[in-house]
Design a protein that fits this description.
Layout (H helix, E strand, L loop, with lengths): L3 H10 L13 H7 L7 H17 L4 H8 L1 H6 L1 H7 L24 E2 L18 E4 L10 E6 L10 E3 L19 E3 L13 H18 L3 E4 L10 H11 L2 E8 L9 E5 L10 H21 L4 E8 L3 H5 L4 E8 L6 H22 L1
Helix pairs in contact: 3-4, 7-11, 9-11
The structure holds zinc ion (ZN).
Length: 358
């Protein structure tokens, strides 16, 4: 704990910048593979019908998207398709969160809906997240929100409430315990070679995205470029309404001269009784524990017992399993090989979470 505080102070004063690793060599290829949704008349008609149709199937998680995929057929033969949803009764409990999720298409940009719960607490929300649908036959219908930490210009100039009930923070961190408000998005730290945390979190997030898509998971990228005008509250609320879980990617600025390893931010006892954390903390901690365990199994160094309890804005507004993972610190090896191991471990952990929790 005492290592983290000076580091997070550093976080506050270092501005995010675009590092040298913003794009992958295969990024262009990836973007070409993602078909942007053209909202022609047929699609718009389909969307009008979609809401009615998905009401009956959305709670069935993984199956809801399959029904909405074939929109042409739904528009032309709505009755027949409605009947065809009947055999989709799941034979086992759904793996996705069972609340209604926004219907989204592959490549679609997702904005913050001001009507969503807690949306009014956001101050920076003109940007959009991007949804990627798993392309393979192994698609499971689970949507993972991947949040590349930092990367919001102007994020340190605005403050948001730490908690939706406006109570003060119960632990220290980037923001001191007792604070009612925190910076909307902190700038992030710098690695010892000067690389910005924001550029590396994006690079790692894209690696994780690609591996999740390959493993059959849909991915919501909360930040899909060097900058996104979405504060931590907006990113969390979008995740709540579009994704089934939320994993944010960070590196700790702790001031050490060696890599202490990976850990997740666990939920401090002081906010476990606060809505909506009271409903999610056990799942959030389980998600973090599974990711860190899998990182360790994949050869990545783990810091101490693998967790540190900190009162985060992300946790406080999450209505779904939600965790901040710190993938090392300013001394962490930034080679492709190591980042690949981190991404692989993360995906293994997410897979383990869904296998044991459902
Ligand atoms: Zn960070």
């Amino acid at each position: 704990m005492r290592f983290l505080i000076p580091a997070l102070v550093v976080c506050v004063f270092v501005s995010a910048c675009d590092g040298p690793f913003g794009l992958f060599a295969d990024e262009e290829e990836k973007e070409q593979a993602v078909m942007k949704v053209t909202k022609n008349e047929d699609v718009l008609k389909a969307e009008e019908n979609q809401e009615t149709l998905t009401i009956t199937v959305e709670s069935e998680g993984a199956f809801a998207e399959d029904v909405t995929e074939d929109m042409g057929a739904i528009v032309e033969e709505p009755e027949e398709n409605t009947e065809e949803t009947q055999p989709l009764e799941p034979e086992e409990p759904p793996k996705a969160t069972n609340i209604d999720k926004l219907s989204v298409e592959n490549g679609e940009s997702v904005s913050l809906d001001p009507n969503w719960e807690y949306a009014s607490f956001s101050k920076i929300n003109s940007g959009t997240a991007v949804f990627y649908k798993a392309p393979g036959e192994n698609r499971c219908g689970i949507r993972v929100g991947i949040n590349a930490g930092h990367g919001t210009k102007g994020g340190t100039e605005v403050k948001t409430y730490c908690h939706p009930d406006m109570t003060p923070k119960v632990t220290g961190g980037t923001t001191a315990a007792g604070s009612i408000e925190a910076v909307a998005v902190s700038g992030g730290m710098s690695f010892k070679d000067g690389t910005s945390e924001a550029s590396m979190t994006l690079k790692l997030a894209r690696l994780i995205r690609d591996k999740l898509l390959e493993a059959g998971y849909d991915v919501l990228m909360l930040r899909d470029g060097d900058d996104v005008q979405l504060d931590n509250v907006a990113r969390t609320v979008i995740c709540n309404n579009v994704a089934d879980c939320h994993v944010s990617i960070h590196f700790d600025g702790d001031g050490l001269d060696y890599d202490k390893g990976c850990f997740y931010i666990s939920v401090p006892d002081g906010i476990k009784g606060m809505p909506p954390v009271d409903r999610t903390y056990h799942m959030s901690d389980e998600l973090g524990a599974q990711i860190v365990k899998a990182l360790g199994n994949n050869g990545c160094k783990i810091s101490g017992n693998g967790s540190m309890a900190i009162d985060l804005t992300q946790t406080s507004y999450s209505t779904i399993p939600s965790v901040d993972v710190e993938f090392g610190n300013q001394c962490t090896d930034l080679s492709d090989e190591h980042l690949n191991a981190l991404a692989e471990g993360t995906v293994n952990g997410i897979e383990a979470f869904y296998n044991v929790s459902n």
